[in-house]
UniProtKB/TrEMBL annotation:
<dbReference type="InterPro" id="IPR002655">
    <property type="entry name" value="Acyl-CoA_oxidase_C"/>
</dbReference>
<dbReference type="GO" id="GO:0005777">
    <property type="term" value="C:peroxisome"/>
</dbReference>
<dbReference type="InterPro" id="IPR029320">
    <property type="entry name" value="Acyl-CoA_ox_N"/>
</dbReference>
<feature type="binding site">
    <location>
        <position position="183"/>
    </location>
    <ligand>
        <name>FAD</name>
    </ligand>
</feature>
<feature type="domain" description="Acyl-coenzyme A oxidase N-terminal">
    <location>
        <begin position="23"/>
        <end position="138"/>
    </location>
</feature>
<dbReference type="GO" id="GO:0071949">
    <property type="term" value="F:FAD binding"/>
</dbReference>
<dbReference type="Pfam" id="PF01756">
    <property type="entry name" value="ACOX"/>
</dbReference>
<comment type="similarity">
    <text>Belongs to the acyl-CoA oxidase family.</text>
</comment>
<keyword id="KW-0560">Oxidoreductase</keyword>
<keyword id="KW-0443">Lipid metabolism</keyword>
<dbReference type="InterPro" id="IPR036250">
    <property type="entry name" value="AcylCo_DH-like_C"/>
</dbReference>
<dbReference type="GO" id="GO:0005504">
    <property type="term" value="F:fatty acid binding"/>
</dbReference>
<feature type="domain" description="Acyl-CoA oxidase C-alpha1">
    <location>
        <begin position="284"/>
        <end position="445"/>
    </location>
</feature>
<dbReference type="InterPro" id="IPR009100">
    <property type="entry name" value="AcylCoA_DH/oxidase_NM_dom_sf"/>
</dbReference>
<dbReference type="GO" id="GO:0055088">
    <property type="term" value="P:lipid homeostasis"/>
</dbReference>
<dbReference type="InterPro" id="IPR046373">
    <property type="entry name" value="Acyl-CoA_Oxase/DH_mid-dom_sf"/>
</dbReference>
<feature type="domain" description="Acyl-CoA oxidase C-terminal">
    <location>
        <begin position="479"/>
        <end position="651"/>
    </location>
</feature>
Length: 659
């Protein structure tokens, strides 16, 4: 009986694939960026999937200790394979992606190395980077403290220069100055880039970065004056618990003066503080780098969740036709489509805006090398804003995909609970999303205030220069409505702030509105970049048409969800709003026959998806059934604890019933 069912489900996905109206292989290229990108990703995904060390289906059942050891084993094995196969940087980071387990290597490569590259002098880079590249040292990024994370200027750890010995003394003066959260710190790292208040000649010069050795390179024990450990279990089983987020305290630990990262400023042998001619905001450069990579990761996490929910919705059937005919695939329900297809469109939208952001970041980095700092603010606003909007949307979407999969979505074997638990801290780390959106809002307010002086905004703010036109015009339901909404919301905020007794007080009072104005500005960027993408030459039968559809879905869904903003700012009429919603329904009908093929284009292996519901072959029910028996509770037929707790209870009930 089960076998018959399985065959039917498999046929179902084959029928879905046959019904698609576009070339899936060509869509894989559009998604990945090039034929080369598809091939490398394919090779790395298969390398990981075929290696038993990278098994992850038992992860949620491991104890914290076993999970951490498993992470160490995977990282060491991955490194061995990278060296043996002489993998390129591109291949290695894809391999890391498909291993799919957060670990100390992320912070080592993702923050420790970039911090030294961005804030270290050439000499410092020459000394430290080769050690880091060969894993002769393991580093982490120790910024956040128990008392302060968002307010970086409020950090309390001190680095006091001692001219007698030419050393800095690193110290944790209070409990709240304990470093708290850095990934890789708890158990793995030998070194850290530590952010501390630089004090020299009795003056506090604020936050600076220092390279500090934490553990012995001989036996891994903490160095004198260093107290450190893991901060404890985190949300969800498996999930981010593979990471050793740590606590660290210093008791007057001495480091040589040349371990201060000295690209932005220096302390001389005599203890004089010297500021370089580079903007001090470059201290935050590592965060800009990681935020852009987090945007790229949002589309990866979202596309995984959507792939699971789309395939399962094509398999799952509930309720029949009135006359007792075959049951309906839940993917055919209009409500399922209106919840799921905007998420599918968002996965594509975030992918393309992520590619653009990566271009922007590369461009800014090249400009910085020739001391052109003109696009630094643009890079900060775009990375902060896009990080906030895409991670919040993705976290919500993963949870929505869980609900779209009904009861089975709640099982660990669906892959969705763990994906959610791993993903959700992205809304907090690398800058709490609200804090980041307020940064965008500050830049928007600055831009609005400069409009009257005739200064033309540039880059993603250029549309604000069309202020006369956008403040008055009635808009067609296109980009212009998004521009008018964003600009009018920003101008409204600026006017309201202007009425306050002082600017800071006004900003504080209006911060909830400012958040929404920032979101509107960022959504405009996402829509614009999607439109720019579909205007490009995109080869492959039907590919451009599908992307055009998804672009329209993303734009109209965003408009529908935020219709209140569009109406309140007069950027659209109620009639236009209603028409947009009508149109959305028609677009969903066009996505429907292509939905399964559109998620196939992500080209994910079953290993990477890690979901019995999202299996490529659609063989969901036998896999669910088989998976249940693997649970440790099923190792014995009669549970442990029966004799202590169940039997006496049952016997007692029996005695009572005989009374
Ligand atoms: C296990 C198996 C593995 C196997 C594999 C092995 C092999 C591996 C091979 C390869 C692997 C590759 C792996 C790579 C993985 C990479 C992924 C990385 C993973 C990431 C994991 C994340 C972990 C999390 C880390 C963290 O969270 S670190 C801590 C982050 N903290 C924050 O983000 C704090 C947020 N707060 C702030 O950013 C700021 O304090 C503030 C909110 C901006 C306020 O600052 P303040 O100075 O007080 O502000 P203002 O006065 O408002 O601003 C002053 C000024 O500066 C401008 N500004 C602000 N920020 C920036 C900026 N970032 N850039 C530029 N400018 C900035 C601001 O606009 C103001 O400008 P003006 O003066 O002009 O107005
Ligand atoms: C899984 C994980 C990994 C991490 N890894 C690292 C790491 O490797 N290295 C590292 O240094 N740090 C790391 N962190 C720390 C992380 O960067 C901080 O937690 C983050 O920046 C948020 O800061 P916070 O915890 O101080 O939050 P808080 O700022 O205390 O936020 C609490 C609340 O206050 C609100 N809030 C704060 N300020 C304002 C404001 N100005 N206006 C309005 N609302 C405000 C926030 O929106 C939030 O709702 C990690 C955190 C997590 C969860």
């Amino acid at each position: 009986m089960a076998v018959d069912h399985a065959a039917a489900e498999v046929d179902h996905l084959a029928a879905e694939r046959a019904a698609a109206r576009f070339d899936v292989e060509a869509m894989k290229i559009a998604w990945a960026g090039s034929r080369h990108a598809v091939d490398v990703a394919d090779r790395m995904a298969r390398l990981v999937a075929s290696d038993p060390v990278f098994r992850k289906d038992n992860r949620t059942m491991l104890s914290r200790k076993d999970l951490f050891k498993d992470t160490l084993r995977k990282a060491a094995h991955a490194w061995k394979r990278i060296v043996e196969l002489r993998l390129t940087e591109e291949e290695a980071s894809l391999l890391r992606q498909y291993v799919d387990q957060p670990g100390y290597v992320d912070l080592h490569w993702g923050m420790f190395v970039p911090a030294i590259k961005g804030q270290g002098t050439e000499e410092q880079q020459k000394k430290w980077l080769p050690l880091a590249y060969k894993f002769q040292i393991i580093g982490c990024y120790a910024q956040t403290e128990l008392g302060h994370g968002s307010n970086v200027q409020g950090l309390e750890t001190t680095a006091t220069f001692d001219p007698m010995t030419d050393e800095f003394v690193i110290h944790s003066p209070t409990l709240t100055s304990s470093k708290w959260w850095p990934g890789g710190l708890g158990k793995a790292s030998t070194h850290a880039v530590v952010y501390a208040r630089l004090i020299t000649e009795g003056k506090d010069y604020g936050i600076h970065g220092f390279i500090v050795q934490l553990r012995s390179l001989e036996d891994h024990s903490p160095l004198p004056g260093v107290t450190l450990g893991d901060i404890g279990g985190k949300f969800g089983s498996g999930a981010y618990n593979s990471m050793d987020n740590g606590v660290l305290r210093f008791d007057h630990v001495r480091i040589p003066r040349d371990q201060m990262l000295m690209r932005l400023s220096q302390v001389t042998r005599e203890g004089k503080y010297v500021q370089s001619d580079v903007p001090k905001q470059l201290l935050y450069g590592t965060m800009v780098y990681v935020r852009q990579s987090i945007v790229a990761d949002a589309s990866k996490a979202l596309s995984r969740a959507v792939c699971i929910a789309v395939r399962y919705s094509a398999i799952r059937k509930q309720f029949g036709s009135q006359d007792g005919g075959p049951e309906t695939q839940v993917l055919n329900y209009r409500t399922q489509q209106s919840r799921l297809f905007p998420l599918l469109a968002s996965a594509y939208a975030f992918r393309f805006v992520g590619d653009w952001l990566n271009w922007l970041y590369t461009d800014v980095t090249q400009k910085l090398e020739v001391k052109d700092y003109s696009t630094l603010q643009e890079a900060h606003a775009c990375t902060a804003g896009l990080k906030a909007v895409t991670t919040s949307a993705t976290a919500d979407a993963i949870e929505e995909c869980r609900k779209l999969c009904g009861g089975h979505g709640y099982l660990n074997s669906s892959g969705l609970p763990e994906l959610f638990a791993v993903y959700v801290p992205a809304c907090t780390y690398e800058g709490d999303n609200v804090v980041l959106l307020l940064q965008v809002a500050r830049i928007l307010m600055k831009t609005v205030s400069q409009l009257t002086s005739g200064k033309q905004p540039v880059g993603t703010m250029a549309y604000m220069g069309k202020v006369q036109h956008l403040m008055q015009s009635k808009c067609a339901v296109k980009t212009e409505a998004f521009e008018a909404r964003a600009l009018r919301m920003a101008v409204n905020c600026a006017q309201n702030i202007g009425q306050a007794s002082n600017q800071e007080e006004g900003f504080y009072e209006r911060s909830p509105d400012l958040l929404e104005a920032a979101v509107a500005h960022i959504q405009l960027i996402i829509v614009t970049k999607f439109i720019e993408k579909v205007h490009q030459d995109i080869p492959g039968h039907g590919v451009k048409e599908q992307l055009q559809n998804l672009c329209n879905v993303y734009a109209l869904y965003t408009l529908h969800k935020h219709l209140g903003d569009f109406l309140a700012t007069g950027s659209l009429t109620p009639k236009q709003g209603a028409l947009a919603n009508e149109q959305l329904g028609k677009l969903y009908a066009q996505v429907r026959p292509n939905a399964v093929a559109l998620v196939d284009a992500f080209n994910y292996t079953d290993h990477y998806l890690g979901s019995v519901l999202g299996r490529y072959d659609g063989n969901v029910y036998p896999a669910l059934y088989e998976e249940a028996w693997k649970d440790p509770l099923n190792e014995t037929v009669v549970p442990e604890g029966y004799h202590e707790y169940l039997r006496p209870l049952l016997k007692q009930q029996l005695k009572l019933s005989r009374l």
